[in-house]
Design a protein that fits this description.
Layout (H helix, E strand, L loop, with lengths): L6 H8 L58 E8 L4 H11 L1 E6 L10 H12 L4 E5 L11 H16 L3 E4 L2 H4 L18 H10 L3 E3 L18 H4 L12 H4 L11 H14 L5 E3 H4 L5 H10 L3 E4 L4 H4 L4 H10 L4 E2 L4 E4 L2 E4 L12 H13 L24 H15 L2 H9 L23
The structure holds zinc ion.
Zinc ion binds next to strand 1.
Length: about 450
């Protein structure tokens, strides 16, 4: 355990040995929020990283496509903690990452400490890490929940420089209305003040709904996600063997995969001014036709690639290439990497945690899939499926948007405010999409 440096000293070190004249966390403009700003807590800051090493000194592997120069990357889907700052910096330098979007910026559940830590991480890395807030589900069902979280978001954005809101799959699968004991539905209108505040502030909502389709199928060795689910039986929502079920805490009956995705689409439509980034390939990497329709119907929906190359990589490469070309303005690159001082996740983890040396091959597997036409290659997270994929050889202009430009636009608050103000289509007569939930016959 390293000794903790007092906060002010650490700030001084990070700021090049000059004590900051003003507090790092600026006072909130009082026009932005009605609640009194929370006092800034003192948090333990780990030792400073080497300030002579910039994350912009990039040393990624060259592309495996001859002559192709990859742009700087925005990884729009990461889970980062302050104590991992040295490892984060190293990962960014090793893989050509200009910006990491930290979707675990924290909620107000345990006070503002985590927001302060996230802001220090962003400041320490010179703005190359940007944070998204997580809501605090406690108290849901009370009349003021939406207003409370909307005000907190305004504070996180205006005072702590957060750049968006992240909703985890707990919405729809775990968060409970304290009044009724029922699961909160993804399209519950009491969430609308939060979505609307995002549009007003010009920040996006990154949202995870449901999980891989096979997590709803019977949990047994025939399930295509058995390797992962046997390590994480709590992720399974279908029939579970009694011996595994006995280990799990009791929980409300989950909705079906399709019900969750349809509720999400109703919610996207009810909030057309708000920009949503549906993670994990629109939360439906298994059904590319459904995701195509989702994007066609709802122009406020974007998708990321995180932790689903293996899944969507099972579709024919030419079909995928056409999909990426068609939706080249609505897809962002993201990996679902998690980095702390003693924690590393690469998309998903099995029983054995990866090592730092595994990170570069993880990014290279993404690059190989997107940039080459190689057949039957490993996908980045083999724990998520014991199969190979064909790479999709995207054109350079599409890659430029995917790796960098689309992410940059979604982090531009003025741009999002413009999108909020554009006219919206009348979708009242357009039916919701119906994702294919059927379990294919198991080959023996
Ligand atoms: Zn994630």
């Amino acid at each position: 355990m390293k000794p903790l440096i007092p906060t002010l000293l650490a700030f001084a070190v990070l700021a090049g040995c000059k004590p900051p004249a003003t507090p790092t966390v600026a006072p909130a403009p009082d026009t932005q929020i009605s609640a009194a700003p929370t006092p800034t807590p003192v948090v333990a800051v780990p030792p400073a990283i080497d300030p002579t090493v910039s994350v912009l000194e990039l040393a990624p592997a060259p592309s495996e496509r001859a002559g192709y120069q990859r742009p700087k990357i925005i990884d729009f889907h990461a889970h980062l903690s302050l104590d991992g700052q040295e490892r984060i910096q190293r990962v960014m330098r090793d893989n050509g990452i200009e910006i990491m979007v930290n979707l675990s910026g924290g909620s107000m559940r345990r006070g503002p400490e985590q927001w302060v830590e996230s802001k220090i991480l962003a400041d320490t890395l010179g703005g190359h890490v940007l944070n998204f807030m997580n809501p605090d589900w406690s108290g849901f069902g009370g009349p003021e929940w939406g207003k409370r979280e909307a005000e907190r978001l305004a504070e996180a954005v205006t005072r702590y420089e957060f750049r968006g809101l992240k909703i985890a799959k707990i919405l729809g699968l775990g968060a409970v209305d304290e009044g009724t004991g029922q699961l909160v539905k993804v399209d519950d209108p009491r969430l609308n003040p939060l979505w609307q505040k995002c549009a007003e502030l010009g920040v996006p909502v990154t949202i995870h709904v449901a999980d891989p389709r096979a997590f709803w199928w019977p949990l047994n060795p025939d399930n295509e996600r058995w390797d992962e689910l046997k390590v994480h039986p709590g992720w399974a929502y279908g029939p579970i063997p009694p011996e595994l079920a006995a280990e799990l805490p009791p929980r409300p009956k989950p909705p079906s995969w399709g019900e969750l995705l349809q509720a999400a689409e109703r919610m996207y439509r009810a909030n057309p001014q708000t920009i949503f980034i549906a993670v994990h390939f629109g939360n439906a990497a298994e059904d590319i036709d459904y995701v195509d329709g989702l994007l066609a119907r709802n122009d406020n929906v974007h998708i990321d690639l995180a932790a689903r190359v293996g899944e969507f990589g099972r579709h024919p490469a030419d079909k995928l290439q056409a999909f990426f070309t068609k939706w080249q303005d609505r897809i962002v690159f993201g990996t679902d990497i998690g980095i702390g001082s003693d924690f590393l996740m690469l998309g998903s983890n099995g029983a054995v945690e990866p090592r730092l040396a595994d990170v570069r091959p993880f990014y290279e597997a993404h690059f190989r899939f997107l940039e080459t036409a190689k057949k039957q290659i490993d996908h980045p997270s083999p724990i998520q499926g014991n199969w190979k994929v064909d790479a999709i050889d995207l054109p350079a202009p599409v890659l430029q948007k995917l790796y960098h430009d689309n992410g940059k636009l979604l982090l531009d608050r003025a741009h999002l405010k413009e999108l909020a103000a554009r006219p919206h289509k009348d979708l009242s007569k357009v039916p919701l999409g119906v994702p294919n939930e059927a379990q294919p016959k198991v080959k023996k």
